Q: What sequence folds into this?
């Protein structure tokens, strides 16, 4: 469109006459060279296309809606977006599963012990787990986010601060605090921090003390202390008249029967 | 006029790396006993427990087998304290409620690591050098 082809036909004119005379065929070569018609191509400011073509081009250009339209500068700020990303909580179905399992352990066990875990090999942990299992006590390792997910908005919410570092949790459907303490003493890497007994969160000393006590012996002790504190005297005073009445009536009854028998 | 070099040439390798660097220099030789006392329900207990964990690693406890590491669990909302009983009879108490793990390690290396007897250090160096020499001879 912008250039024209010029074809130059050049013959070997100088040697043509000689060759013709010699009776040999003429050898002619064609040289082609492209030449621009006037000037360079106008790339930087091309002329407007023809009206019909312009219409077609306009029709063909794609258009997209602006994603930033109707948004405030605060919403468009990059830092704000970063913060929002940080705030977003990743939903992981496996984490939910673990959390449900964890809460189930808490709900179904009478005794729960929380140990701070120092540097410890897996072999040692296994050696710790074996005697515990014989006593119907099971050890579990739950990370902080799992426990937080499990325990939030439940009665066990107060234990969340314990899980800020490495924690080994011990669950049991029975109340075997003394046995558990005896086994854990062999492993100085584990430090008992707190525990839950019958749904009550207790600190270390209370947990051990309450765990030592058996309910029947505690009841016997309570009865004894009450009796020692004037319980017997009070009981006698309260039932004095009733007991005398009963004895009198008994005496009368027995004497009457004796008389009747003697009459017969 | 030339401009003197200022600032760091490399970027920081991060917190874990910094903790690792501090842990390399920790030595329990000047100590007789370490007592870590904390309330597990206290607010800022994480770093103290982390510090306790780092001290309990076999590599660090191996630097002095006669040093006892004891833990005292309380429930009185008191702030966590770390007591270092020195062989010399002195005591160093660190109140660690507002200190991070790295800061605790730095404080240890600042106040207690310099108390390591120098003769032993020299002996260790000699032993290391001789060990290297033997390896070379084998080859």
A:
């Amino acid at each position: 469109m912008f250039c024209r082809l010029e074809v130059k036909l050049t013959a070997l004119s100088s040697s043509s006459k000689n060759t013709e005379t010699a009776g040999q065929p003429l050898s002619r070569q064609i040289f082609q060279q492209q030449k621009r018609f006037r000037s360079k191509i106008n790339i930087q400011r091309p002329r407007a296309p023809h009206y019909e073509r312009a219409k077609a081009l306009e029709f063909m250009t794609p258009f997209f809606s602006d994603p930033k339209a109707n948004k405030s500068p605060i919403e468009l700020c990059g830092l704000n977006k970063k913060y929002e990303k940080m705030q977003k909580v990743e939903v992981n179905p496996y984490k939910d599963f673990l959390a449900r399992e964890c809460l189930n352990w808490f709900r179904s066990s009478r005794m729960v012990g929380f140990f701070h875990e120092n540097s410890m090999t897996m072999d040692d942990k296994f050696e710790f787990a074996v005697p515990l299992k014989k006593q119907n006590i099971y050890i579990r390792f739950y990370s902080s986010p799992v426990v937080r997910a499990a325990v939030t908005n439940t009665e066990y919410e107060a234990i969340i601060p314990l899980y800020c570092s490495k924690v080994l949790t011990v669950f049991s459907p029975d109340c075997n605090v003394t046995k558990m303490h005896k086994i854990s003493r062999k492993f100085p890497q584990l430090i008992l921090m707190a525990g839950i007994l019958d749904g009550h969160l207790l600190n270390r000393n209370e947990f051990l003390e309450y765990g030592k006590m058996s309910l029947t012996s505690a009841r016997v002790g309570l009865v004894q202390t009450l009796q020692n504190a004037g319980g017997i005297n009070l009981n006698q005073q309260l039932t004095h008249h009733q007991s005398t009445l009963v004895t009198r009536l008994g005496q009368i009854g027995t004497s009457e029967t004796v008389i009747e028998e003697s009459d017969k | 006029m030339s401009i003197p070099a200022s600032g760091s040439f490399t970027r920081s390798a991060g917190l874990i790396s910094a903790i690792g660097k501090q842990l390399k220099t920790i030595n329990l030789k000047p100590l007789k006993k370490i007592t870590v006392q904390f309330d597990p329900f206290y607010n800022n207990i994480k770093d103290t427990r982390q510090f306790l964990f780092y001290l309990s690693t076999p590599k660090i406890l191996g630097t002095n087998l006669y040093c006892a590491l004891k833990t005292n669990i309380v429930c009185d909302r008191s702030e966590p304290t770390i007591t270092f009983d020195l062989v010399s009879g002195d005591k160093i108490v660190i109140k660690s409620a507002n200190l991070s793990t790295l800061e605790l390690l730095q404080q240890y290396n600042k106040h207690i690591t310099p108390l390591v007897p120098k003769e032993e250090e020299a002996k260790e160096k000699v032993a290391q050098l001789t060990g290297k020499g033997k390896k070379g001879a084998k080859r």
